Amino acid sequence: MSANTVLLDFSLDPARINDEVSRKDIVKLCKESLEKYLPGVKITYDMLTTDGYLCMLSDAATIVTIRFFLQGLITINIEYYRQDGEEPKISFENMKSLENGLRIRLEAKRSKHLPPIKRGSNVDVYLTSSDERVIEYDIDRVLFDKRSEFQKIQIVHSKSLGNMLVLDELQNIAEADLIYTETLMRRGVEEYAGKEICILGGGDGALLYELLKEKPKHVVMLEIDEMVMQACNKYMNSICGDVLEKRKDDHYEIIVGDCMSYLNKYIKEGRQFDYVFGDLTDIPISDTPTGEMWDFIRLIQESSFKVLKPDGKFMTHGNGVSCPESLEMYEQQLNKLTPKVTYTKCTAFVPSFMEEWVFYQVQRQNTDDAASV
Amino acid sequence: MSANTVLLDFSLDPARINDEVSRKDIVKLCKESLEKYLPGVKITYDMLTTDGYLCMLSDAATIVTIRFFLQGLITINIEYYRQDGEEPKISFENMKSLENGLRIRLEAKRSKHLPPIKRGSNVDVYLTSSDERVIEYDIDRVLFDKRSEFQKIQIVHSKSLGNMLVLDELQNIAEADLIYTETLMRRGVEEYAGKEICILGGGDGALLYELLKEKPKHVVMLEIDEMVMQACNKYMNSICGDVLEKRKDDHYEIIVGDCMSYLNKYIKEGRQFDYVFGDLTDIPISDTPTGEMWDFIRLIQESSFKVLKPDGKFMTHGNGVSCPESLEMYEQQLNKLTPKVTYTKCTAFVPSFMEEWVFYQVQRQNTDDAASV
Description:
Chains A, B: Keywords: Polyamine biosynthesis, Transferase. With 373 residues, chain A is of the alpha+beta class. Helices cover 30% and strands 38% of the residues of chain A. Chain A is built from twelve helices and 21 strands. In chain A, β8 (126-128) and β9 form a beta hairpin. Chain A is elongated and about 80 Å long. At the A-B interface, β1, β2, β3, β4 and β5 of A face β1, β2, β3, β4 and β5 of B.
């Protein structure tokens, strides 16, 4: 049950759009083609715009706007309400015929139609990539949908990805995303056996679950949002096992609280780790590295190095490779850190993100060299 | 340079949409919110529809349609032409503010906005999944764009996926898709050393290139479209090496021609293979297994088994897991094949498809059992 918005467009010689006679012909051709699928459709309104012309057609339930842009483009938007189980007014195959037929009749240089955009349905299937691209997911069920003190928490089911955690409309992790966790921890490259580890965030439990398989001495996980853990414990067991259910054993402990206050506590106590994982919010996509979020990222990293052993590593996720500006800004921040650090990075295609993601491994600079002088 | 269509929607109590007074208030609120970004916007037209009401606003260059659906939904479409380098009329951040502000003022139960849909630009970034979902790719360049005798061939560059072959608007293979080829051939499971292999299609060269690394005795590849091979040889070397450039050596030969006539020739000659790969067009998504495409698929498979040794295997790709009906239909076709066959299947998430894909391995039924009787 949703409104369907069907978008079509055609590129034409601008001269034909500028000319009133040819414009009338084009409207006539469009109307004739549409009548096949929308019988009784009539022109209800038209107007000149500063960059062309607009014409509206309607059969009283479907609204069609045809817009002429002097730059050489015609856009057609078809919108109507589609009840559950009701066939679309123009099927996928018919949309192809409509597009191809009109392309030929209009002598268009190029044409395009998109699958219907579904609006207002109970299950929201549109999520956005790191660089603000729209992606329609094959989400068919919402399993969990609540707002915690900190964020909007949803667990949805995708046919391709399994259950998926969505926080504040951002895809976070899905059952298909083992590669995310394995790349974040650099499985097979880093040696975790016998090590002391601190996870900042990580409420989905996947990183903790995978790290424990490597036999570390102890992992402490600092997660602020109890509700995320409850939701993941219920719906994401294939990626987090029973770590969120049990909350602690001899080799790990989950602490519900603000990671900054615990980091400060550890700094005061002189507690030291071999690895600190930054598994918090994504680094922001803004033009300048200012604002609360960047301050928070800087603070987190500086505090993390205060609890890291001299050869300890800070491991974190960055952003999509399609956001080079954001990645560069993060790297500039790393270069300004105290103590001086070096970093390596690697990438992996993360299924639920639908993009190639960058992960960072940050270390104090030349600790061995300094020691050997 | 493209027309931008910005889509927003709000779910409201249907009673408020039915009521004329409250409808006028809502239009007023929408107009006030829009004026901030579109100064001078005026109501130019309105009409009652069978399922609600439509109101159009314009500042002479931007057209806004606000539609009320009695089912409890308001859709807002904002459309204007955006020149290259021109800032969007409503930025990403402002869209969030507009949506959140209106959601609160309208007391909406839910709301949503999508990134602007870009229409008529030189680089088409929208492709469709197997189940007709829209996916916006991070395509930034078109490297090759020609129509051959058989299909429209494009090679585009994606920031996440590298160069990508697109045939008739369908994503075919990208540089990031080694997993596709490795799953199709079941690397590490099947043993190709010393084997005789026939590839039907496979014009991108990736399967041939990967198979040759396994030291088969000989591979013959039957591809009909010379232009696809030329394009891939020029732009997809990271996945096909020099196999398309060289065309043959002691261990392989590429034949440009219709695979059916060559299969018939091999049947006549009694030539036999250990493996036949079906790397042709995707299996169709239609409701019934009829039509030319299904006939072709049946014919290809039956002919393939005529050139396969008794224990030979037919290896092919199926469809997305989000198309269970299509997969089921393909499996029904397999069950009807002569000779009787059995099949196994496996899946992999293919980056350029942005979905989990199913691959089939088909063999004659119980050949060993039959022989031992």
